[in-house]
Amino acid sequence: MPPAEPERPNKPEAGGTADSLIAFLDRLARRLALEVHTLWLVFRHRETPWPVKALLIILLAYLASPVDLIPDVIPVLGMLDDLAVAAVALWLAYRLTPRHVMEECRAKASEAAEGREGWISRFWRKLTGQERPDREA
Q1: How far is CA 88 from CA 8, 11, 111, 124, 132, in A?
Q2: Distance between first and last Cα of the chain
């Protein structure tokens, strides 16, 4: 007799339902918000080296600037250059920031985000009418 197949956890399949997509997008948005808040706290931390602060200011100025390496009117390449510049600058900022500063700032950002509901989930519930007071749960 072949061995019994182990039970799989009750996880929705990728691309299964709209709710699983909303949950995925919500987790992604939460992670992005956590990283942005962490970088803000790193920028404000007194032990962060000045090159990291300068790099973050330059990155923000580049992303907000209408001047690009490749113009955004070129469909895919116009966005990819911004993504590549941001990825390299953020990688460098993470590498140059002392580990204890990064851990402290990430812990503060996680503590601040704890208990908050993601905006994508809130929006989806409002859109589908699941938040109306006249509906029974």
Answers
A1: 38, 34, 28, 33, 45
A2: 46
What is the rounded distance in angstroms from the CA atom of residue 52 to the CA atom of residue 34?
Answer: 19
pLDDT digits (tens, 9 = 90+) for 64-120: 888 887 887 888 888 888 888 899 999 999 999 999 999 999 999 988 888 776 666
d(CA 70, CA 79): 8
pTM attached to this predicted model? 0.66
Single-letter amino acid, residue 40:
W
Structure tokens at 124: 């989806």
The DSSP 8-state label assigned to residue 70 in this structure reads S
How many other β-carbons are positioned within 10 Å of the β-carbon of residue 73?
A: 8
Residue type, 34: L
* Burial class of residue 108, CB neighbours in 10 A (0-12, 13-18, 19+): middle
Q: What is the DSSP letter of 48?
A: S
pLDDT digits (tens, 9 = 90+) for 96-106: 999 999 999 99
Calpha distance 58→46 (Å, rounded): 19
